[in-house]
Amino acid sequence: MSKRRAAITGVHGWAPDYILTNKELEKMVDTTDEWITTRTGIKERHILKGEGKGTSDIGTEAVKGLLKKTGTSPDEIDLLICATVTPDMAYPATANIISDKVGIKNAFSFDINAACSGFLYSLVTASQFIETGKYKKVIVVGADKMSAVVDYTDRTTCVLFGDAGGAVLLEPSEDGYGIIDSRLYTDGSGRVHLHQKAGGSVKPASHETVDNREHFVYQEGQAVFKFAVTKMADVSVEIMERNNLTSDDIAWLVPHQANLRIIESTARRMGLDKSKVMINIQKYGNTTNGTIPMCLYEWEDRLKKGDNIVLAAFGGGFTWGSIYLKWAYDGDKFAKK
Ligand code: UT7
Predict the structure, then answer these.
(1) Of the candidates 11, 16, 41, which has an alpha carbon nearest to the alpha carbon of residue 285?
(2) Is 256 a catalytic residue?
(3) Mean pLDDT across the chain, nearest whole number?
């Protein structure tokens, strides 16, 4: 029997039906399908339509699907963490709203905001509660309704983002499966390059902030790109070296989907063939906290018990990190119909 670790024992993802294509964006701002495809790899993204719909609705669909497929009752859940930068409201936590909507009543829940690295931060946080033996079933949700904070008159950001989310169930494993190692980093000085200017305590909402379009994503793309492309690769190589993993040992890289060029560069630095890299950015764009669980969900039926998997992300903050885990089940047991 080895150390108690937190293993993912199920994953479910959800994206809204409405698809916003590059062609449609060509009619909204001065852009082209060619520019978006070559600079980012994105072809389309999903958008959550409907009044009164928020991130919790995405998370709720993901958690409902997860509970159903794993045969878990909401009463069994001890803790639910939601990683998001687009909470339904400033407070209470979106995690609480999701818990209420799915009938989780015996758990505590809270949100984590670490921008695009939030799902990794949340997984690592959740895993501590399992490793100590305190809790047995923990759900981590990564979900964002980015369309709520994207300025559809700004071509430099509106082509990048989409809405989606996913959820994983974490349970204890004493057979060597689960989260084995992680490296998480923050550099708060990077905040100047990627943030939302208004709506927080420094600059509360006012007519002026609305008129100045300050409630949207502000990103200096090139500056963020430079950091992202270096840091995501650095931290992925670091986790390989710390765990004596060669590229042959790794079954899958699950990268945050912000830009195809960043993903490819990370894979190259790790010495990984593209066939081992989960890439669905063309279908969803950057869904912030939704990217990594959505990849795990879409690839689930190809994952094998014992697969060595590296998760890697970079996001606003700046935040970045990587996780090394051993997959705990043959994914085809949940084969999608
Ligand atoms: O997930 C969180 C972390 N975020 C990231 O990792 C994003 C990192 N950054 C990026 O992925 C890239 O910087 C972008 C995709 C955002 C932009 O790509 P880029 O190659 O860095 O382009 P750029 O910002 O240097 O802009 C190049 C040109 C500019 O025109 P000029 O100044 O050369 O005339 C832009 O105005 O492309 C122009 N441009 C566009 N043209 C057509 C910017 N956006 C567009 C657009 N369509 N949508």
Answers:
(1) 41
(2) yes
(3) 97
Q: Tell me how many degrees the CA angle 139-234-125 measures, rounded to the nearest 5.
A: 20
Task: Report how far ligand 1's centroid is from the alpha carbon of 117 (Å).
Answer: 21
**Pocket of ligand 1, candidates 22, 117, 194, 222: which has the most ligand atoms within 8 Å of its Cβ, to mutate?**
222
Task: Tell me the per-residue pLDDT of 89-113, one tens digit each, with 9 for 90 and over.
Answer: 999 999 999 999 999 999 999 999 9
305 falls within a domain:
yes
The reply to whether 116 belongs to the active site is yes
Which one of 179, 194, 226 terminates a domain?
A: 179
Which amino acid residue places its CA nearest to atom 47 of ligand 1?
A: 31
List 158, 256, 259, 280, catalytic entry: 256
**pTM, full prediction:** 0.97
Find the distance separating the first CA and the last CA of the chain, reported in whole Å.
36
Measured in angstroms, how far is the CA atom of residue 270 from the centroid of ligand 1?
Answer: 25
Domain that holds residue 49: 5-179
337 found inside a domain: no
Average pLDDT, integer, range 143-156: 98
286 lines ligand 1 (CB under 6 A): yes
Which has the closest alpha carbon to 306: 251, 248, 246, 239?
Answer: 251
Of 162, 179, 196, the residue that ends a domain is: 179
Within a domain: 203? yes
Q: Report the alpha-carbon distance of residue 9 to residue 205 in Å, rounded.
A: 42
For residues 27 and 175, membership in a common domain is answered with yes
User: Are the beta carbons of 60 and 98 closer than 8 angstroms?
Assistant: yes
Characterize the bridge pairing of strands 252-255 and 308-315: parallel
Count of domains for the chain: 2
Q: Measuring from atom 1 of ligand 1, which residue has the nearest CA?
A: 258
Q: Which amino acid is at 1?
A: M
Query: Residue 90 belongs to a domain with what CATH number?
Result: 3.40.47.10
